[in-house]
Amino acid sequence: MTKTIDITELCLRDAHQSLLATRMALEDMVPACADIDQAGYWSVECWGGATFDACIRFLNEDPWERLRTFRALLPNSRLQMLLRGQNLLGYRHYEDGVVDRFVDKAAENGMDVFRVFDALNDIRNIRHSVLAVRRNGKHAQGTICYTVSPLHTTETFVEMAERLVELGCDSICLKDMAALLKPQAAYDIVKGIKTRCGEGVRVHVHTHATTGVTLVSLMKAIEAGADGVDTAISSLSLGPGHNPTESLVAMLDGTGYQTQLNKDCLHRIKDHFAAVRPRYQAFMSNIYGVETDIFDSQIPGGMISNMESQLKQQNAGDRINEVFIEVPRVREDAGFPPLVTPSSQIVGTQAVFNVLMGRYKVMSSEFADLMLGFYGKTPGERDPDVLAMAAAQAHKPAIEVRPADLLQPEWESLQTAASTLSGANGSEEDVLTYAMFPQVAAAFFEKRAQGPLKLGREPKAIDPAAAPGSAPTSIQAPVTYDVKLNGRSHRVSVTPIAP
Question: What's the 3-state SS for the chain?
Fold first, then answer.
């Protein structure tokens, strides 16, 4: 009997976040929505993660309007988002009332599946978001951030899955943000979850492609009983992105598994984004191929680029290898947190400080808070000497309680502050935008009426007339053709070049 494997398509969110620095404008996604809606995906990830920040910081685009647009254009699809638990989409913890209102509004504006994670795998930071999702009658997907350390074993991941099921999660996601999930580990963890929690518990697997082994990992996860996997359409895949949707479909041929995706739709989606992607050349990742060094450093590609930028600003770009050695040491001192937003940025920045100025001679306030428990409980024990330095710098003791338990209700103060901003419309959505990114939101509200920016530009054509000995030509820009090959339509963009 053939088993159907459900696919979550990432092209509208994580794919361009990973490859194009989250700069893709809504208008470049809209034309593909009809085919995405008819392709047969289990869900379409289109919101959350860094997209909310990028919309207001770079694109002058209202993220709530983006969500409403996707809801209108994808009427047959489950819309999915990535939610950072008690951090929501910001970089600090919010009190429970704000979490409730955010989830309420996301559900009201069209979100169906909430993939909820915490950077430290601290379930206390996931619990309230999950309860809010379930209260809205939506799908709560509890998430395990996969990482590798002496403390992270198959058993610890399976135990976390048990706790997420007990919390009431509708499904479990094994999230591999750094392409560290090797095939055997994928099999063992999924098999362990299915054995311990029951075959009826839905398990989804998310991984990146950076190390070159994770398409095999998805196959092994499927063989172990995974119900769904994440992929990205091929024209927005690989590198620090994800495994190609079409490759996954082809890989399952003759295996007893199938996806039931519409291949004609997939071809049109691929062609659309193949034409769009070159417009974002300025934002493309520097990682093009395979990076197996990640298995040793365990540093995600986005974290590497951030550290490189920090070093270059200090004219110390040649010291990146020292930072690669320091990152695992800092991570161990902090109790082996998984390296995912925001812990990856916090650990990476501290490693840079340590290399440039001496170990913990300067400590970022965020790293001090991580050490002191203000982001939650780390998987392992924290180095007592570094913990003492953090307490001395921050002038506060370490905490053991859930960080949000220390927060006072803040909705009314957020409403009051947002109401004073030029361009704010008084909606709860605007208050939530302000809550996520106060300074960025203030600038966004003021210029929102100007409409979205288009950062993706057509590739600049080279004028053949400018080349010595070239004949004049009237072609000044890329020309798009619809080509039919073997009965199938393909959209091709041709840019003239000088001979």
Answer: CCEECEEEECCCCHHHHHHCCCCCCHHHCHHHHHHHHHCCCCEEEEEECCHHHHHHHCCCCCHHHHHHHHHHHCCCCCEEEEECHHHCCCCCCCCHHHHHHHHHHHHHCCCCEEEECCCCCCCHHHHHHHHHHHHCCCEEEEEEECCCECCECHHHHHHHHHHHHHHCCCEEEEEECCCCCCHHHHHHHHHHHHHHHCCCCEEEEEECCCCCCHHHHHHHHHHCCCCEEEEECHHHCCCCCCCEHHHHHHHCCCCCEECCCCHHHHHHHHHHHHHHHHHHHHHCCCCCCCCCCHHHHCCCHHHHHHHHHHHHHCCCHHHHHHHHHHHHHHHHHCCCCCCCCCHHHHHHHHHHHHHHHCCCCCCCHHHHHHHHCCCCCCCCCCCHHHHHHHHHHHCCCCCCCCHHHHCCCCHHHHHHHHHCCCCCCCCHHHHHHHHHCHHHHHHHHHHHHHCCCCCCCCCCCCCHHHCCCCCCCCCCCCEEEEEEECCEEEEEEECCCCC
